Amino acid sequence: MASHPASDTLKRAIKAHQSGQSKQALALAEASWRMIEEIPGDPPEAGLVASWYGFLLANVGSRPVEGLALCRKAVDLAFWEPTAFLFLTRLELEFGSRDLALRACHRGLALAPDHRELQEMRERMGFRRPPALKFLARTHPINRMVGRWSFKREVAEPAR
């Protein structure tokens, strides 16, 4: 069975992006997406094409809302592809949706725990400290008060 023509175009788009030719990468990714939409059949790379096109559309094409929507669609189409979750994580962070970015990053890391770029994104986003009183909810007023107090104390008295 022959591969879908969109996959060859996507490979060219990725190479163009990696060599710094962002506008050309966007044009190729768009052409690849159009092929997915217009040529009959349901190729397995449809989600990856949508992910790349959405990411480039948001960052190069100055159409971030459409790019984010396409990346969200891509993780539904290619739920097995960690790269789709990486692009969604990046765009959610750019939109200020840290919670959604964390979810996307965790879903990608669940698929590929050794994915270097997803691991870097997770590290960059940081980690929350555990609640001060584990038997109370994180949002409980007492837990919040004790947490603030202990944090101020840690900042004031650096580790010895």
Please give the structural blueprint.
Elements: H1 5-18, H2 22-38, H3 46-59, H4 64-77, H5 82-94, H6 98-111, H7 116-125, H8 141-156
Helix pairs in contact: 1-2, 2-3, 3-4, 3-5, 4-5, 5-6, 6-7
Description:
The protein is 70% helix and 0% strand. The chain is mostly helical and 160 residues long. It folds into two domains: 5-127, Tetratricopeptide repeat domain (Serine Threonine Protein Phosphatase 5, Tetratricopeptide repeat, Alpha Horseshoe); 128-160, no CATH class. α6 (98-111) runs antiparallel to α7 (116-125). The N and C termini lie far apart (65 Å). The relative contact order is 0.08.
Strand percentage lies at under 5%
Order of helices and strands: HHHHHHHH
Q: What is the molecular shape?
A: elongated
CATH topology of the largest domain: Serine Threonine Protein Phosphatase 5, Tetratricopeptide repeat
- Span from first to last CA? 65 Å
The main β sheet shows up as: none
| Number of helices in the DSSP assignment | 8
Number of domains: 2
Report mean pLDDT, rounded to a whole number: 86
**Superfamily (CATH H level) name of the largest domain:** Tetratricopeptide repeat domain
Q: What is the gyration radius calculated from CA atoms? A: 20 Å
Helix/strand-derived category reads mainly alpha
Low-pLDDT stretches are none
CATH hierarchy class name of the largest domain: Mainly Alpha
CATH architecture of the largest domain: Alpha Horseshoe
Helical proportion, percent range = over 70%
Strand tally = 0
